[in-house]
Task: structure prediction
Amino acid sequence: MNHADVAARFLRETGPSGPDCILLAGRYTLLDQTGADELLPLCHDLGVAVLAAGVFQGGVLADSSDGAPHGYSTVPSALAARISGLRTLCRQYDVPLLAAAMQFPLAHPSVPAVVVGARSPAEISEVASLLDEEIPADFWSALEREGLIAASAWAGVPSPVSVRSVGGWAG
Result:
């Protein structure tokens, strides 16, 4: 689902007899944490796993060019400013942006995996290697301090060990 509120309503209506997991597209990412408002706490309470998809926000985090596509249009200026802030901090801390995008959702206890697309076996290996990137705790703190991730959406600093084991990638 790409609407966290719809998924939350569905889980409230189905309760404990509902699904074991849900696929949440683009709503618990570095750019959009609306899934953390209601859905992730509800999933945690019900024991429902969240598969975080769209962590690269439709590719907008992977494309470093100005005017990169976002959906069917160009990136809105407010979103471009957030992306610029993320890129700046990534450069300061020597953190690959896509590694941060992959690892951020995995810090939440209800998110056992992220779902990404790949066009080739080489891309699969490249994306999987992002889970091995060691990201300093100071980087995550800086994102929060700069307002790029909301404190209420933040589940704590992911560690490389937890990312590899919780993320489900066996290397």
Notes: The first strand starts at residue 21 and ends at 25. The beta strands are 21-25, 49-53, 69-70, 73-74, 113-115.
